[in-house]
Amino acid sequence: MSGSDVILERLMSLHPKVIDLSLDRMHRILAALGNPERKIPPVIHLAGTNGKGSTQAMIRAGLESAGLKVHAYTSPHLARFHERIRLAGELIPEPLLAEMLEECEVANGGLPITFFEITTAAAFLAFSRVEADYTLLEVGLGGRLDATNVVPDPRLTVITPISIDHTQYLGDTLEAIAGEKAGIIKRHVPCIVAKQLPGAREVIEKRADSLGAPLKIHGQEWTSYREGDALIYQDEHGLMDLPLPVLPGPHQYDNAGTAIAALRELGFGRIEAKAAVTETEWPARMQRLKHGPLVEAAKGCELWLDGGHNPAGGEAVAKTLAAMPKRPTFLVCGMINTKDVVGYMRPLVPVAESLIAISIPNEPNTLPAEETAEAARRAGLPVEIAADAQEAVQKIAAAHPEARILICGSLYLAGQVLKDNG
């Protein structure tokens, strides 16, 4: 176990709740640290239900293609905590991560604080001490009361598509959830708005109007869509004919448009837009696995991995599978116990032959495989249960040698799969 792992384990015990949305503890620890959040490079702050990570990765690819150094903060991590904090383009090195965590632990003085809050403070501390040109900051949950929402004057805010998720924390209507996400909008700061359902868009527009924040909204100030083998992006500055995004799936056309709109707002053009769609790497978003023990277990079957976990994520996966060359598709699924499991699975029924349910290893909030299986039955999918992903993949490969296998349902499962698969 590394030094940072030991500290992270200690930090988990500082608050009885994993999620407790508030900014009071965050302001307290940041003040004790000398307010590092006010000393970081210009911030691009992203919120939304789906597409935050992909959009952030595309913006980063575009900025880095211009020779700029970019900090980035994202969550959750997949295989190692270090993935959450990227300093000037590189994952935070172990010695510096341990140093930042220790400094935050001392500044906190043993007071109650959530794991996400104190690790976000550590990210701000690291960002304030390493030079860069921009900071990409992804919301953890919601927006208004999220630990990242302490930067007083970001350069730009971005809101990706909003849908129903995390209702126990954000409210049980689309409008309530949109109100929380729109909490990142700041006075007079431009905001890029991805394609939204009408109720969500109205809430965002009302919030922006009250703060005098200029909006650039999909379908009004800009649009993006596929035409043949090209991505078409158009805004007030003109039309760009670009390659299709390297990240697979029709939903990535919208994410790419959002990223390009952000780059355009920052003053960048075609070169950076092209890099945003062609040079992005973002694991566990319809990622094809090509090496490792699980691929060997698949014995010639296509093996894919996706971390989508809510109904909108299920719809995106279903559209991606439907657009692929036709091949019998089988799902291996493990989910967290806070998700709308039936809602996630229902869009997948027309594109999948069956599903094998598993529990997520080493994850205390996993939904037991039996409950995942029951949800699959309710959604209308034939279902079996396996002990783990390896056994599930072997079962499918033995019965269907030419299959496409998709491991899906949770970023926590995706992270475990990436670890196990080397």
UniProtKB/TrEMBL annotation:
EC number annotated for this UniProt entry: 6.3.2.12, 6.3.2.17
Start and end residues of each Mur ligase C-terminal domain: 295-410
Cited PROSITE patterns: FOLYLPOLYGLU_SYNT_2
Gene Ontology terms: cellular component: cytoplasm
Domain Mur ligase central: 47-262
Entry's family note: Belongs to the folylpolyglutamate synthase family.
Keywords in alphabetical order: ATP-binding, Folate biosynthesis, Ligase, Magnesium, Metal-binding, Nucleotide-binding
GO molecular function, one term: ATP binding
Protein name as annotated: Dihydrofolate synthase/folylpolyglutamate synthase
Biological role stated in the UniProt entry: Functions in two distinct reactions of the de novo folate biosynthetic pathway. Catalyzes the addition of a glutamate residue to dihydropteroate (7,8-dihydropteroate or H2Pte) to form dihydrofolate (7,8-dihydrofolate monoglutamate or H2Pte-Glu). Also catalyzes successive additions of L-glutamate to tetrahydrofolate or 10-formyltetrahydrofolate or 5,10-methylenetetrahydrofolate, leading to folylpolyglutamate derivatives.
TM region positions: none
Catalytic activity: (6S)-5,6,7,8-tetrahydrofolyl-(gamma-L-Glu)(n) + L-glutamate + ATP = (6S)-5,6,7,8-tetrahydrofolyl-(gamma-L-Glu)(n+1) + ADP + phosphate + H(+); 10-formyltetrahydrofolyl-(gamma-L-Glu)(n) + L-glutamate + ATP = 10-formyltetrahydrofolyl-(gamma-L-Glu)(n+1) + ADP + phosphate + H(+); 7,8-dihydropteroate + L-glutamate + ATP = 7,8-dihydrofolate + ADP + phosphate + H(+); (6R)-5,10-methylenetetrahydrofolyl-(gamma-L-Glu)(n) + L-glutamate + ATP = (6R)-5,10-methylenetetrahydrofolyl-(gamma-L-Glu)(n+1) + ADP + phosphate + H(+)
Cofactor(s) needed by this chain: Mg(2+)
Keyword match Magnesium: yes
Domain of life: Bacteria
Associated pathway: Cofactor biosynthesis; tetrahydrofolate biosynthesis; 7,8-dihydrofolate from 2-amino-4-hydroxy-6-hydroxymethyl-7,8-dihydropteridine diphosphate and 4-aminobenzoate: step 2/2; Cofactor biosynthesis; tetrahydrofolylpolyglutamate biosynthesis
PANTHER family: DIHYDROFOLATE SYNTHETASE-RELATED, FOLYLPOLYGLUTAMATE SYNTHASE-RELATED
GO aspect biological process, one term: folic acid biosynthetic process
Keyword Magnesium set for record: yes
